[in-house]
Amino acid sequence: xxxxxxxxxxxxxxxxxxxxxxxxxxxxxxxxxxxxxxxxxxxxxxxxxxxxxxxxxxxxxxxxxxxxxxxxxxxxxxxxxxxxxxxxxxxxxxxxxxxxxxxxxxxxxxxxxxxxxxxxxxxxxxxxxxxxxxxxxxxxxxxxxxxxxxxxxxxxxxxxxxxxxxxxxxxxxxxxxxxxxxxxxxxxxxxxxxxxxxxxxxxxxxxxxxxxxxxxxxxxxxxxxxxxxxxxx
Amino acid sequence: xxxxxxxxxxxxxxxxxxxxxxxxxxxxxxxxxxxxxxxxxxxxxxxxxxxxxxxxxxxxxxxxxxxxxxxxxxxxxxxxxxxxxxxxxxxxxxxxxxxxxxxxxxxxxxxxxxxxxxxxxxxxxxxxxxxxxxxxxxxxxxxxxxxxxxxxxxxxxxxxxxxxxxxxxxxxxxxxxxxxxxxxxxxxxxxxxxxxxxxxxxxxxxxxxxxxxxxxxxxxxxxxxxxxxxxxx
Lengths: 233, 233
Known about the structure:
Oligomer: homodimer
Mean pLDDT of chain A: 90
Number of helices of chain A: 11
Shape of chain A: globular
Distance between the termini of chain A: 42 Å
Low-confidence stretches of chain A: 132-145
Strand order of the largest sheet of chain A: 1-6-5-4-2-3
GO molecular function (chains A, B): precorrin-8X methylmutase activity
Radius of gyration of chain A: 18 Å
Family (chains A, B): Belongs to the CobH/CbiC family.
GO biological process, one term (chains A, B): cobalamin biosynthetic process
Domain Cobalamin biosynthesis precorrin-8X methylmutase CobH/CbiC (chains A, B): 12-232
Order of helices and strands of chain A: HHHEHEHHEHHEHEHEH
Keywords (chains A, B): Cobalamin biosynthesis, Isomerase
Helix content of chain A: 40-55%
Largest sheet of chain A: 6 strands, mixed
């Protein structure tokens, strides 16, 4: 082997990576609390564009950590993001990860309505978890979607890493009052309606968001933002 | 909604994305056969760096498709890549996807040997599938790792999207003659030994490879290269 390897103990690899990222970011000033998220996105992608393109709504980290602490669950639009989220850590607080993309009823609804499975999977989330203030409309587990004063029912975080159509449908469901997410992680990737789908999320007034503006994002970025939050707890 | 959406039918979104990518790539000339792989990596990441950083060994696409056709299986270093690979399509030819990262014996071996779980998971692959010319050393399913003339036993493709330590161990196992992969997809991402781990793969003389030089890559890229190959069949 002609190539010189850096000698780093297994347990130190992530630490060393973050040191390199910190060095290369230089004197950058972050929105308070957001630094671990920005750095983990760079760690996941080796792409320093994430130092520029991430947008955070006011006090979003504080709000997201509060939601996770109350047992919020995560709904995502890909099995890859579901695989990447640290489910053990999430479960410590009572949350779990849902992805409805492979569900037969979602595929059927998409066919019937001429929409994408991603959009139909957001519909399914709304059906299962709509704001119900204690009234269960699912046999499994009643879930409110945003903190109501005095209400300790856990809420929902949406982590959208692939499909702009999921993000657009989510925007509509929020506007229609059918969902009130604790947090929207809006990081779909691609070329058709991706930029637009993220811009409309920034229009939402009362919904905390973390959005990667522009074309970039992905399931890996969606999962890593969830994990960055979990590792801050 | 103030933002103007492009009207594209669900079934047309991917096609339209690839048209945009093709437009933006302009007059670029690709190594024959590699164009769908490069474009799918850009599609997955919205990162045109993949037009520059992907390196292909000679006739790698032809060889990889041959391996898949003979029922090659895929070993990967993350559950995310496993989740992202089109397992239904792979199964049509007889292959399946393995990821040993969460296996208890892998965690144990890593602890014992002071290595990473990723490196230990490559060891496990070598133990399970080492070149055996028809002699099963696993009760489940004997697998050769590279085509032997007249030998139709399916082989192995390694798709490494996260851990440089996996790629380095894989390199060593090939050099030691314990594995002879049909293809190494070498696209770990990150900052510690990532660049080096990919450069050493380029030194392998008889192993077909697809490598993303530099720091970039990821589970999403590993999965999408597998899928690009599968969609070419």
